[in-house]
Design goal:
By secondary structure, this protein is an alpha/beta fold. Helices cover 35% and strands 20% of the residues. The strands form two sheets. The protein has an eight-stranded mixed β-sheet with strand order 1-2-4-3-5-6-9-10, sandwiched between helices. A two-stranded antiparallel sheet has the order 7-8.
Length: 257
């Protein structure tokens, strides 16, 4: 694999990305941007599968690493939801051109929602995989022990064990506090573009019924969800990759017209 490209943010941090450009008639089709999950990177199974699909179908595609993730600069512990959503918005501003479909996995779903709200003229469709809006409050804070909450309230970093990584997630006070400023499920979400959701019903990290809450909050009239019995949070096996590619392909076909 070639080295990724990068751009420099106003604060001097760099965001690494891969961009697949197209020309001619294909340049008029919907582009696709991948927004990964917490502590994941742009070399993950789903991101690469989408890139391969885009290559086969002559479709513009961008995948990138958030601040503090993968090959981008910065320390993860200094990241926030605002920062990671801003990274996605800067990708739209500086890398992607024309109308886009955002594909957001887990935390990437939250970042995609915030990006769609900030760039409604460019974001024409959304595809979510196990979307996790508001997870810092509802799935982290609400489940923390009194001792963990007290530690964070004192300004210390909580080391949350991870089932996906030998190293713990470093949960900072600013991540929790910033998350509260970006909660989206407490009110109607003023997104009106088509939305597709894929969620496993054995997801131990983001319960599948949270997608029902998201569906209720979204103001779009064109929202469909696929719930897969027995599927876990990652949904990176071949059958679920195929489901994801079908959802993206169908939405592209709908919006290209």
């Amino acid at each position: 694999m070639s080295e990724p490209l990068q751009f420099t943010c106003p604060d001097g941090e760099t965001i690494a990305y891969y961009a697949r450009s197209v020309h001619g008639a294909s340049a008029k089709k919907m582009g696709v941007v991948w927004l990964g999950g917490l502590k994941s990177d742009m070399t993950g199974t789903k991101a690469v599968a989408l890139d391969d699909w885009a290559a086969r179908n002559d479709r513009a595609f961008v995948r990138f690493d958030y601040f503090g993730h993968g090959q981008s600069s910065g320390d993860f512990v200094d990241g926030t939801i605002s920062r990671w959503a801003q990274d996605a918005q800067t990708v739209l501003d500086q890398v992607a051109t024309g109308p886009q479909i955002l594909v957001g996995s887990s935390m990437g779903g939250w970042a995609a929602i915030l990006t769609a709200l900030a760039r409604p003229d460019q974001v024409k469709g959304l595809v979510f995989v196990a979307p996790a809006p508001d997870f810092t409050e509802d799935l982290m804070w609400e489940n923390f022990s009194p001792e963990t909450k007290a530690l964070i309230d004192r300004g210390e970093v909580y080391e949350q064990p991870s089932m996906y990584d030998d190293n713990p997630y470093l949960i900072s006070p600013q991540l929790i506090q910033d998350g509260r400023r970006n909660l989206v499920l407490r009110n109607d979400i003023q997104i009106h573009c088509p939305v597709r959701i894929l969620h496993g019903m054995s997801d131990a990290d983001v319960p599948w019924d949270r997608s029902l809450t998201l569906i209720d909050a979204l103001q779009s009239d064109d929202v469909t969800a696929t719930f897969v019995k027995g599927a876990d949070h990652r949904m990176s096996d071949d059958p679920n990759i195929a489901r994801l590619l079908d959802l993206v392909a169908d939405l592209c076909a709908q919006l290209d017209e």
